[in-house]
Amino acid sequence: MSGTPHLGPGQTLTTAFLRALAEELGARIAAEILPEKVLARTPDTITWWVPAQREVMFFGGVDPEARALDGGAYPHPALVFKVTRRELFVRALERDERPGAETPLKTAPYWNCDAAGGVCLGSMRVPDDTTAESIAGWQAGFFRSHFTHANGAVRLTS
């Protein structure tokens, strides 16, 4: 042989090979009991919903009107959060009830979020994983962060 790459004869794939390949690609999920608020779970994504509630919010940045709101408790709509590969997304729900597969998602009324629901993590403290146990940490990271800037050209709140 001259060292030139070539395609050899094919081999039948085995179930054992496919399992090993899936594990090496990170498709293994440890068994865990999922709370009712979890909507979906994959090896690298977890999605959950939160009923409407009051939450304390923190505002930073240069806008003096926003800074005057810092530390107050404000009403929030029902929300859907998704974490995938250490990226956080948030969307709002029209109704305060657990969403289904056909429930339309709305733009969440928050600074630090883009039109697709992506959250700018900035200096937010968030968990390293995407398990059911990490949900509280992701939510706390979101609500305990400083909302500092609007993303996009649309006014989200009044």
Polypeptide structure, described:
The protein has 158 residues and is α+β, with helices and mostly antiparallel strands. It has one domain (34-147). Helices cover 15% and strands 23% of the residues. It is built from 3 helices and 9 strands; from the N terminus they run αββββαββββαβ. It has helices spanning 15-24, 64-68, 135-143; strands spanning 38-42, 45-50, 53-56, 58-59, 73-76, 79-84, 87-92, 106-107, 146-147. The strands form 3 sheets. The protein has a 5-stranded antiparallel beta sheet with strand order 1-2-6-7-8, with helices on one face. It has a two-stranded antiparallel sheet with strand order 3-5. A hairpin with a 2-residue loop joins β1 and β2. The radius of gyration is 21 Å and the shape is elongated. It starts with 14 loop residues before the first helix and ends in an 11-residue tail after the last strand. The mean pLDDT is 87.
